[in-house]
Amino acid sequence: MSGAQTTGAERVQRQLDVGLLPEAALDAATAFMALHLEAARALLAEPATTALAIVLPPAPYDHRDWRLALARDLAREATPRRVNVVAGQPGEALAASLRFLADAPGVTGQYLVCHDTARADERAPQA
User: Fold this and answer.
1) Domain boundaries, the chain
2) Which of 32, 33, 66, 93 lies at 20 to 30 Å from 75 by C-alpha?
């Protein structure tokens, strides 16, 4: 678990950082539900929490369905608190997404995938 981002006198976005998950989508979903769902619910139960950003590692496209379902269903369960899921490596893209979500009181139940262009440029073949 990570700290909180305060975005005003009353809004606090908590962050749950999930490290490694299995490679297969079904196994990853099962592992998240077994190992991290209760921690997410506990953060949402804290009186000061108004939003939760769940940070997952990058994954192939076949993980999209369970991650989107997690974001939507947990957001519905936690209303009026907001829940969003963000996938990405640590870097500017992830940090910018988390800053945006911390200051976006109308955004909930979303799955955001971050692409760090600086890292992509580092890996791009030179012409």
Assistant:
1) 4-123
2) 93
